[in-house]
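Input structure tokens:
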């Protein structure tokens, strides 16, 4: 089968014939229905109909639950496939946060860069928050707060006298919260 297409250009019209791809064949699914054998006993017609429908529903349920319909390698949904939990070794049991390298008091000159660093461990992994003079602080254009691989860092690229104060790093997990503090003093030029 061919399709005629018209392509318009500024000067003329052209006819181009292109073959059309045939439609893919339809997907045909079939369902096998089993029927009960005709019994020689004298049953009423309604009994035969209800018996037949019961057999068909049972038959379809058996086919649905059979393993022959499962794709190869698909997991079984039986309880026997449930895996046992493996307990972690004793050294990785949950523990409260602990600062292995706490903050220390620091005095730097006005205009210098400030980097406060502390190391923390804990299981589960603690959440880190910073505060200055008791007020929570967060990352901004002036201040960069990071926490990665157990190292919490607060960076200010250029300190001013108003940055002076007590900085606190708090590590919190499901067991408890611990903190480390340092006093930052800014030396005037």
């Amino acid at each position: 089968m061919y399709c005629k297409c018209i392509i318009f250009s500024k000067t003329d019209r052209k006819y181009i014939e292109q073959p059309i791809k045939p439609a893919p064949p339809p997907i045909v699914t079939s369902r096998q229905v089993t029927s009960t054998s005709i019994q020689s006993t004298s049953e009423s017609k309604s009994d035969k109909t209800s018996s037949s429908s019961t057999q068909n529903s049972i038959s379809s349920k058996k086919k649905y639950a059979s393993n022959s319909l499962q794709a190869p390698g698909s997991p079984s949904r039986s309880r026997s496939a449930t895996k046992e939990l493996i307990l972690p070794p004793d050294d990785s049991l949950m523990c409260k946060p602990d600062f292995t390298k706490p903050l220390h008091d620091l005095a730097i000159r006005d205009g210098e860069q400030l980097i406060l660093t502390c190391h923390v461990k804990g299981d589960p992994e603690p959440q880190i928050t910073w505060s200055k003079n008791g007020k929570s602080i967060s990352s901004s254009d002036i201040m960069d707060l990071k926490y990665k691989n157990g190292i919490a860092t607060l960076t200010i690229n250029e300190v001013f006298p108003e940055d002076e104060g007590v900085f606190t790093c708090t590590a919190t997990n499901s067991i408890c919260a611990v903190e480390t503090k340092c006093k930052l003093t800014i030396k005037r030029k």
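Residues 48 and 157 are 89 Å apart (CA to CA). The longest strand covers residues 177-187.
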